[in-house]
Amino acid sequence: MSLSKDALDWLLPHKCDICGSVADVTEGDIANYKTVYSRIYGTQPELHICGKCFSQLVPLQGMSGWTLCLSDPVNGDPHPELALFAPFPYDEFCQRAIPAVKFRKKKELARLLGIILGKTVRENGIIADLVVPVPLSEERLSERGFNQAEELARPVAYATGVPFAAGVLERTVNTRKQTECKDTGSRFLNVRGAFKVSEEWDLTGLVLIVVDDVATTGATLHEAACALLDAGAAKVLCVAFASNRTVKNRETV
Ligand SMILES: [Zn+2]
């Protein structure tokens, strides 16, 4: 005897990928996202979301989501004009959703967040030549099996019609360890920060979107953007799913 899928779902209801409650969002509610997902990835995702979390996945209308991406306003900043687009606040909800992606390895959830982010970026009319993700260290990548920034960035590229490239930015070796080294090369890398542009890429004159999951201080995206600008990019737009700089009060809407 075999049980039907409906019977199994009734006996063993799925848990929400984000909060662990019973995943009660219907296929109809999430159908549009699944359609976009299958267009990008060629497969249907296994996504399980509860109604409460699903209701949180809507950025506020009429909010641009742009803030200043300034990592070092006190000691001077070579690129103080950098702007950050982050349509969600890093609130209680995002503090569950993002760790679910990173620490419970919910890659399909990362892609769903990317699809929502991409839709918001497109609605804000952002134009660029290339979308690149902030790279993950080799150690984290082997732990997690995927780079969440890449999973967010690819749907942004799809939504905006901008080409996507994963290997443009590379992590340098650990900068703290470099400070212990006294040779010129190590010092140079330490000043330049945590990222460099792959030698395979010529970014001269290009407008780039660089994507990360969360911008808290903005320092990671700022350093990534500086590396791209130093490599000749004409302009860099920093994009994150969530930021604690995004001012939003859901209760008043
Ligand atoms: Zn939930």
How would you describe this protein?
The protein has 2 domains: 1-56, no CATH class; 59-248, Rossmann fold, CATH 3.40.50.2020. The protein is 40% helix and 14% strand. Residues 175-181, 183-192 and 248-253 have low confidence and may be disordered. With 253 residues, the protein is an alpha/beta fold. The protein has helices at 5-11, 27-41, 51-56, 94-103, 107-123, 138-144, 148-160, 175-180, 184-192, 219-230, and strands at 66-68, 83-85, 88-89, 130-133, 169-171, 195-197, 207-215, 235-243. It is elongated, with a radius of gyration of 19 Å. Bound molecules: zinc ion (ZN). Residues 16, 18-19, 21, 50, 52-53 line the site of zinc ion (ZN).
Helix- and strand-based class? alpha/beta
Quick one: biggest sheet?
6 strands, mixed
Tally of individual helices: 10
Uncertain ranges: 175-181, 183-192, 248-253
CATH topology group of the largest domain? Rossmann fold
- Mean pLDDT, rounded to whole units? 83
Q: What letter string, H or E per element, gives the SSE order?
A: HHHEEEHHEHHEHHEEHE
Helix content: 40-55%
Assembly type of the shown chains? single chain
Name every ligand kind in the structure: zinc ion
Radius of gyration: 19 Å
Distance between the termini: 51 Å
Number of domains: 2
Percent range for β-strand residues: 5-15%
CATH architecture of the largest domain: 3-Layer(aba) Sandwich
Q: How many runs of DSSP E, i.e. beta strands? A: 8
Short characterization:
Helix content is 40%, strand content 14%. It is an alpha/beta fold.
